[in-house]
């Protein structure tokens, strides 16, 4: 009897466990291995180094490659870099000014970068995320230029560690996700294309005005020269 009761109890416990498992909320995308922030960091650093003609020989192998979200990060991080290049360059110089690059030093430099005054240090908005990855991309390029390639993996690790902690602390509360990040990235890229088109239109407009001005001046000069020579 005791053995029978024990078997029944075990069966009952098993059914409860199954129900509890079914009731669990599904993982958010940033909690899945597929979308670990390290993948975004490594992919962008690789891409940014290649733009400057460098190979990352020690690059860690990623379980997932060529995710559409990686492409979104590449696009918006490069847009951010081009808009804020001077500020980013100053930060890179500050970070690499020390002989030894430690995680503590990395945190000191980037702790408040891209963070609004009303945000806590643990907050990680999409804008701050992009800013920090763009910054890291310039850091590794500077290291490659100085033939300090052994430090590139360290910067990738520091960046991933810094971002991962803050994503896990804040994204669930702020209702953020990689899917929503990709949507925001599309908006940014669309606005950037509109801005570039507007600049091209202005450039063509001023080119035509310049040509017209040169034409008027040229005609006037020719008329004046002919009048002088006819005297």
UniProtKB/TrEMBL annotation:
Keyword Transmembrane among record annotations: yes
Membrane-spanning ranges: 206-229
Gene3D superfamilies: Blc2-like
Pfam families: Bcl-2
One annotated GO biological process: release of cytochrome c from mitochondria
Record-stated family: Belongs to the Bcl-2 family.
Protein name per the record: Apoptosis regulator Bcl-2 family BH4 domain-containing protein
Organism whose genome encodes this protein: Parascaris univalens
């Amino acid at each position: 009897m005791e053995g029978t009761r024990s078997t029944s109890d075990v069966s009952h416990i098993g059914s409860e466990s199954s129900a509890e498992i079914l009731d669990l909320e599904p993982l958010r995308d940033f909690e899945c291995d597929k979308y670990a922030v390290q993948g975004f960091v490594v992919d962008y650093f690789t891409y940014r180094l290649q733009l400057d003609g460098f190979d990352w020989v020690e690059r860690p192998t990623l379980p997932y490659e060529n995710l559409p979200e990686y492409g979104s990060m590449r696009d918006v991080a490069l847009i951010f870099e081009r808009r804020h290049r001077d500020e980013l360059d100053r930060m890179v110089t500050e970070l690499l000014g020390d002989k030894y690059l430690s995680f503590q030093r990395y945190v000191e430099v980037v702790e408040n970068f891209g963070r609004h005054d009303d945000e806590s240090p643990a907050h990680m908005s999409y804008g701050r995320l992009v800013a920090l990855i763009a910054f890291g991309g310039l850091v590794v390029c500077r290291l490659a230029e100085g033939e300090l390639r052994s430090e590139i993996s360290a910067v990738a690790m520091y960046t991933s560690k810094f971002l991962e902690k803050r994503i896990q602390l804040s994204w669930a509360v702020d209702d953020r996700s990689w899917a929503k990040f990709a949507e925001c990235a599309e908006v940014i890229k669309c606005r950037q294309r509109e801005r570039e088109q507007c600049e091209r239109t202005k450039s063509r407009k001023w080119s035509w005005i310049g040509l017209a001005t040169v034409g008027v001046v040229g005609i006037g000069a020719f008329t004046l020269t002919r009048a002088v020579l006819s005297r």
